[in-house]
Design a protein that fits this description.
The complex is a heterodimer. Chain A is built from 13 helices and three strands. Chain A is mainly α. Chain A folds into two domains: 192 residues, Alpha Horseshoe (Serine Threonine Protein Phosphatase 5, Tetratricopeptide repeat); 45 residues. The radius of gyration of chain A is 27 Å and the shape is extended. Chain B is mainly α. Among the domains of chain B are: 173 residues, no CATH class; 53 residues, Orthogonal Bundle (Arc Repressor Mutant, subunit A). In chain B, strand 2 and strand 3 form a beta hairpin. Classes of the chains: A mainly alpha, B mainly alpha. Chains A and B meet through helix 6, helix 8, helix 9, helix 10 and helix 13 of A and helix 20, helix 22, strand 2 and helix 23 of B. Chain B: Belongs to the proteasome subunit S3 family. Chain B: One of its GO terms (cellular component) is proteasome regulatory particle, lid subcomplex.
């Protein structure tokens, strides 16, 4: 076992060297090698066999997966992020009694929360949140994500955007950029319903475009139903919930027949 | 939760101490119960087993160490493995006590019976377990329950199912009391699988609930939901277990933001729960109140004023008030004031979610009262503590409009919000739909009530007799007809 452990450490050192050089393609190939090598350790989840080197192996494996998660952010690969994070998660939850906590734990958990927010998986976001202890919720990295979600739900979008300036960790920037796009779509959706029209100047400001050109491109691409004339953006409103003019007779007949049938059974 | 086990109705535990004054009444009761179990095994009648369990629950408060000891000595063959194991839990000095109590019982032991029914053996385990838990000897209870479960695994008898289900419950309960639930998760899963393979539906029901409880104890909502959605479902056998299931389901749904479904399950759980299960109903009501608030509904005042729940629900009552008024400051102060309670109830994260509902309600109130109001005033009224209140207010209002919380438009150039006239709800199909759902509910309730009726077990026998009679009669008629026909023939 000792031999493989030192092998893994060696490869991992090479990986870290490439990582600091920002040589992402080397990192990726080394990472897949590392993951294959990790399968040789019986002390890792889900087996948790006890062995004298178990603590060392667990710590090493956790370190590798933490790097993998950060790497996936750097390569901007969300699927890889999810995969790596799920592999990492048992090291945070199930091995708490075996190895000392990692300094990277909260930044990475916060990052995951942010990802769920960006992908609009709010239910999972809250499920993850329930797993965190009150101390964890006080951590700036986690708090950042939690407050973002709140502002997002409330509709205070400019608070979301200003949060980009105050990211607690450099890896967060990627997701914050993605979030900005989500926010823009949200704002567009809200504006459509809330305003009859907006001047180009205001629309530009609200939707955070730097030039009229960008705005017009966005409108033609995402919302072709909007109309730009006289220096204003008009939102076509298909106002629903108009009072129903006709009686849904077929449905009513069906219901009434249903009642009659049921009543007959009772009497 | 344990309160829920208190039985729903006082079953007819006939006090028969008048006839036999010498042994203590509790002991007589215990003997009656064991006789009931024996009868249940012989007749394979599940109902008798359930009744036996119910008797124990009513006796529970009266049982003393001496009673259990006397009963065990009588029931278990001396020198057997069970006896030696179970009697270990009782200190020696009680023995003397017992002999003074009921000298007749020891002489009554049946030495010829070397083996006892597995049902009775498990019942003995169960009795000791309940006794230990009541005596707060939790570590002993834990050991006892583990021994009982490993013994139980050696049997495969359908008559055991009812007792086994109870045993599972106390097994998990004893581990919960010693805060080591995580240890038995594997065992519970294995038991659930076995129960599924044996079509032991009561066992499945109980174990599924225990597993859900186990997961939720550690806030593992994801795993709980995965198990729940994949476990086989069938019509509930036990009302208590069904209530629990609904409660857990409601909690999972709440966390996953499916508030409408969550509300339904939680309210149903609160309604179905027996009146004596006060702790359980309080929990249900707490969660239901929050879910309703999250849905934008305001729970009625009476929910918080129910008998015996007033004190426990008061934090939630104040919270409701804050949401109803739509006052962010009040909301904040209530949340701070009771933050300990909310953390203990594990509702803290939900309360955080409520903030946006408070804003919504405030906004709705504003929208109703004013036909036109400037965004600066909106921000001031909502008390948004932010650097850019107007921009915040604008986007918050815009989102509320899109989500349909208020019916208004924003005039950006002038910076004000214009509320629209509220339409007449009776010009839409809404009342018809509401009416329909209520009728459907009533009809469904009636149908379920009819289905739940129980008939005496031998009622159909009479019918069969009459069927036999009818056959006889028909035979006679046929013969008669034949005779007539023959006579007819003769005439020709």
């Amino acid at each position: 076992m000792e031999g493989t452990l030192s092998d893994v450490s060696q490869v991992f050192d090479r990986f870290k060297a490439a990582f600091t050089r920002n040589d992402l393609s080397t990192c990726t190939t080394l990472l897949s090698q590392l993951k294959v090598m990790l399968t040789g350790f019986p002390s890792l989840p889900p087996l948790y066999c006890e062995s004298p080197t178990a603590i060392h192996e667990l710590t090493l494996a956790r370190d590798i997966f933490e790097h993998a998660v950060v790497l996936s952010v750097k390569t901007e690969d969300q699927d890889a992020f999810e995969r790596d994070f799920l592999q990492l998660k048992p090291y945070y939850t199930d091995t708490r009694d075996l190895i000392p906590p990692s300094a990277q734990e909260y930044p990475i958990l916060g990052l995951n929360l942010l990802r769920l927010l960006v992908q609009n998986r709010i239910a999972e976001f809250h499920t993850e949140l329930e797993l965190l202890s009150p101390e964890a919720l006080e951590n700036p990295c986690i708090k950042h994500a939690v407050e973002l979600e709140q502002s997002f739900m409330e509709g205070a979008y400019n608070r979301v955007l200003s949060a980009r300036q105050a990211v607690p960790h450099e890896t967060y920037v990627y997701f914050m950029d993605l979030l900005a796009k989500t926010v823009r779509d949200e704002i567009a959706g809200c504006s459509e319903k809330a305003y009859d029209y907006l001047s180009l100047q205001d629309a530009k400001q609200i939707l955070m475009f730097s030039s009229n050109q960008d705005l017009e491109e966005y409108v033609t691409e995402e919302h072709p139903e909007w109309e730009i004339r006289n220096g204003c953006v008009y939102f076509q409103k298909a106002k629903e919930s108009a009072p129903s003019k006709e009686i849904p007779s077929l449905q009513l007949i069906n219901q009434t027949l249903g009642y009659a049938r049921e009543l007959e059974r009772i009497v | 939760m344990a309160t829920q086990d208190v039985e729903m109705k006082d079953s007819a535990a006939a006090p028969s101490n008048s006839s036999a004054p010498s042994p203590p009444p509790v002991l007589t009761h215990l003997k009656n119960v064991s006789a009931l179990i024996e009868k249940g095994v012989v007749t394979k009648e599940v109902r008798l087993m359930i009744r036996a369990i119910r008797h124990i629950m009513t006796l529970r408060r009266k049982i003393k160490a001496s009673h259990v000891l006397a009963f065990l000595k009588q029931l278990l063959p001396p020198g057997s493995e069970v006896a030696s194991r179970l009697l270990l839990y009782f200190p020696k000095e009680d023995e003397k006590d017992m002999e003074v109590d009921s000298p007749s019982s020891t002489s009554q032991t049946v030495p010829s019976k070397h083996t006892i029914l597995p049902e009775l053996e498990i019942f003995a385990y169960l009795l000791v377990l309940i006794f230990l838990i009541d005596q707060k000897q939790y570590n002993e209870a834990k050991n006892c329950s583990s021994a009982a479960i490993s013994r139980l695994k050696q049997f495969n008898r359908r008559t055991l199912d009812v007792l086994a289900a109870r045993l599972y419950f106390y097994y998990s309960y004893s581990y919960e009391l010693t805060d080591s639930l995580v240890e038995i998760r594997g065992t519970l899963l294995a038991l659930h699988r076995t129960a599924t393979l044996r079509h032991d539906e009561l066992g499945q029901e109980t174990l599924l609930n225990l597993l859900l409880r186990n997961y939720l104890h550690y806030n593992l909502y994801d795993q709980a939901e995965k198990l729940r959605s994949k476990a086989p479902r069938f019509e509930a056998h036990s009302n208590q277990q069904f209530c629990r299931y609904l409660y857990y389901l409601g909690r999972i749904r709440t966390i996953q933001l499916e508030y409408t479904d969550a509300k339904e399950s939680l309210l149903q759980a609160a309604r179905k729960a027996p009146a004596s299960a006060r702790g359980f109903r309080i929990q249900c009501n707490k969660w239901a109140a929050i879910v309703r608030l999250l849905l934008g509904e305001i729970p009625e005042r009476t929910t918080f004023m129910q008998n015996g729940m007033k004190k426990a629900l008061s934090p939630y009552f104040e919270l409701t008030n804050a949401v109803r008024i739509g006052d962010l400051d009040l909301f904040r102060s209530v949340a701070d004031k009771y933050s300990k309670t909310f953390s203990a109830d594990r509702t803290h994260n939900l309360i955080v979610r409520l903030r946006h509902n408070v804003i919504r309600t405030g906004l709705r109130n504003i929208s109703i009262s004013y036909s036109r109001i400037s965004l600066v005033d909106v921000a001031a009224k909502l008390r948004l503590n932010s650097a850019t209140p107007v921009a915040d207010a604008q986007s918050i209002v815009a989102k509320a409009i899109r989500d349909g919380a208020i019916d208004a438009t924003i005039d950006h150039a002038n910076g004000w919000m214009l509320s629209k006239e509220t339409g007449d709800v009776y010009s839409t199909n809404e009342p018809q739909l509401a009416f329909n759902s209520r009728i459907a509910f009533c009809l469904n309730m009636h149908n379920e009530a009819v289905r739940a009726l129980r008939f005496p077990p031998n009622a159909h026998k009479k019918e069969r007799e009459s069927a036999e009679k009818r056959r006889e009669r028909q035979q006679q008629e046929q013969e008669l007809a034949k005779h007539i026909a023959e006579e007819d023939d003769d005439e020709f």
